[in-house]
Design a protein that fits this description.
By secondary structure, the protein is mainly β. 11% of the residues lie in helices and 31% in strands. The longest helix is centred in the C-terminal third of the chain and has 33 residues.
């Protein structure tokens, strides 16, 4: 009996090569499909029919071994594998297009089904949802509006705990925060096209520049005295000689709080440096400004008498309050002549260059005056020798210690003081709310709207109190003090003016601040971590959302469900979640798309081979047909 296995083999070969041609045709047709992954075919032989099991050699019969004989029944498609190699990335210029460079998939949801895709042709629908080209909801993390509160210590005329004038003031800050730490937060990405970025109150003013070490030192009147012949030309603040933890308030504390009346001029003193500063001694510390006392003496200070008592330097900067409203802050610097072993008003000029600074609210073009002096400005003096490890100024009377917010410099021009700051020490002898210890950096306060108005700021309406830190640079002794902010170099030059060789000073500074007003969304873009960054009309950028990434243990086990989607199978393994450019996941390239990874040259070559295989097997069917026909005619 003649076997038909040859015909079966030819048919199986025809079928296998036909499948291969189908895969090749599918690949070629998807040459321009975004994120498409090509397929490859593997073949295996069919079950073989054993004709003889063979035998071993027999030495006694002098017979050799005989190999087994089998007859194959053709071939079959063993597997069709998906090639997940990187496709070519091409720039598109479309802000919502993204390409994955490396490992991982985007996660997309359609109804209750979850899919994986490499196709990054994304858009926002009418409701602000981020969707893929098939309309699936792209998954990730959305930013949400968070409120944080900062508590600061302030003075209040209403009094505070234990009868002290220190009352905590709470500052609220609203901002969008993106939390990607919990995979449970993964959801449909949605961005409101009308989203508004909340304003940020200014919290820092950073200075860079130079305060000339010999500002007008050769010219009479160029160096200001703090208390010459009566009323001072620069305010010193309140007298705290009797500052003790006594309940109820004693007159000195009441005066500081603005309860017992203004400060008289007699309580103001000139200051004098009594020793060189060391690394273990705290420089100037700042308390507050008794505005009532200063206003009482309006017209007696340098800024009220310009000209000729003009500041050594003046700089202005626009800042923002908690409502995003702009305010103008002007800071004036006056060089004072009261430091150094030569004593008060040293005729030879200051031994260690020192400047007093004062800040004013000059919003709307209002001139500098006592009435718009900002809280936090000024010098506070008093009996604080009970505070351990503090260094301040001695006015010359036993038991009298003064502190103030001066800027002074080391002999190499580096900054030697923070410029102020009243911080409560760790042992807190007065039982006051802690502020982090000595010294604290200088701050100014913009007008608040609080039930308990702090002592320092000028009362007004419309915004929370705004605390702004003045960053004059990194201070310390020589080698520790830095030149990253204000410096005290003699940068002026000697020039001939009217035939006289005159020193021309060079004091200058630039100021930057970190606040801004509210803004509306203008455009979005993706960074390499898949974060959607919004650009707003206020010039700021904000992280609005971030796409989630996923992979599986065996990508080859994914089901190709069409429309650029893959789904899990029993052999793909569980989803592993992550973020782009982290923990082995690929990076995101914005305004670009990953193209198909089909290699046309390889596909055309494979097509020729598959076509020849198909043709040959078809010819084999013809041969087998002729053979069967011959057999059927033998009995005729």
């Amino acid at each position: 009996m003649m076997s038909s296995s040859g015909l079966d083999s030819a048919i199986s070969g025809l079928q296998a090569n036909s499948t291969w041609l189908d895969v090749i045709g599918n690949d070629i047709s998807n040459t321009n499909t975004i994120g498409f992954k090509s397929g490859s075919v593997s073949f295996a032989n069919q079950f073989s029919q054993a004709l003889s099991s063979g035998s071993a050699d027999n030495a006694s019969s002098e017979l050799g071994g005989v190999d087994p004989q089998s007859l194959g029944t053709g071939t079959r498609v063993q597997s069709i594998q998906t090639d997940f190699s990187q496709g070519t990335v091409q720039s598109t210029g479309v802000s919502t297009d993204i390409a994955i460079q490396g490992n991982g998939f985007l996660i997309s949801k359609s109804g209750s089904s979850t899919f994986l895709t490499r196709a990054g042709n994304l858009t926002f629908d009418s409701n602000g949802f981020l969707v893929d080209g098939s309309g699936g909801m792209v998954q990730g993390y959305n930013a949400s509006l968070q409120y944080t509160k900062t508590t600061i210590n302030s003075f209040s005329s209403a009094g505070g705990p234990f009868g002290f004038p220190f009352v905590p003031a709470v500052i609220t800050n609203a901002s969008y925060q993106l939390n990607t730490s919990d995979p449970a937060n993964i959801t449909n990405i949605q961005i409101n096209p009308n989203v508004t970025m909340p304003p940020k109150a200014s919290t820092t003013m950073t200075f860079q520049g130079n305060l000339d070490a010999f500002q007008q030192a050769t010219q009479p009147g160029g160096i200001l005295n703090l208390n010459p012949n009566g009323l001072p030309t620069l305010p010193l603040g309140a007298d705290l000689d009797r500052f003790q933890p006594v309940i109820p308030l004693n007159p000195a504390v009441a005066t500081l709080a603005g309860i017992g009346g203004p400060v008289s001029a007699a309580t103001s003193y000139a200051i004098q440096q009594t020793a060189d500063f060391t690394a273990t001694q705290s420089p100037i510390i700042d308390g507050g400004t008794n505005l009532a006392g200063i206003k009482l003496a309006a017209g007696n200070y340098a800024w009220e008498q310009q000209p000729p008592l003009s500041p050594a330097m003046q700089t202005s900067e626009t800042v923002y309050d908690s409502n995003g409203v702009t305010r103008e802050v002007t800071v004036q610097f006056y060089q004072v002549n009261d430091l150094g072993p030569g004593g008060i008003n040293n005729a030879n000029g200051p031994n260690q260059a020192a400047y007093a600074w004062y800040a004013f609210d000059t919003t709307g073009g209002q001139p500098v005056s006592t009435n718009n002096l900002l809280g936090g400005t000024g010098i506070l003096e008093g009996d604080l020798e009970t505070l351990p490890n503090t260094y301040s100024y001695d006015e010359g009377n036993p038991g009298q210690i003064e502190i103030g917010d001066l800027i002074y410099f080391n002999t190499d021009g580096s900054l030697a003081s923070a410029g102020g700051g009243f911080g409560i020490p760790p042992n807190n002898p007065f039982g006051l709310p802690p502020t982090g210890g000595f010294p604290a950096p200088p701050h100014i306060y913009l007008p608040p709207t609080n039930a308990l108005s702090p002592f320092s700021p000028i009362p007004t309406t419309g915004a929370e109190i705004t605390q702004i830190q003045l960053k004059f640079g990194t201070y310390g002794v020589i080698g520790v003090g830095q030149r990253d902010g204000l410096t005290g170099d003699a940068q002026g030059t000697y020039q001939t003016v009217n035939g006289v060789n005159t020193y021309v000073p060079d004091s200058h500074a630039t100021v930057t601040q970190n606040g801004y007003g509210d803004g509306t969304l203008q455009s979005v873009s993706f960074d390499q971590t898949g974060t959607i960054v919004g650009a707003f009309s206020n010039g700021q950028k904000l992280n609005l959302a971030q796409v989630a990434m996923a992979t599986v243990e065996n990508p080859g086990g994914l089901n190709n469900t069409g429309t650029n989607y893959f789904s899990q199978s029993s052999n793909s393994g569980a989803l592993q979640l992550g973020l782009a450019a982290q923990n082995g996941f690929g990076a995101i390239q914005g305004s670009a798309l990953e193209g198909s990874n089909v290699n046309i040259t390889v596909e055309l070559s494979s097509m020729i081979v598959a076509q020849r295989g198909f043709d040959t097997n078809a010819r084999m069917i013809t041969v087998q047909s002729d053979k069967l026909q011959t057999i059927s005619q033998l009995g005729q």
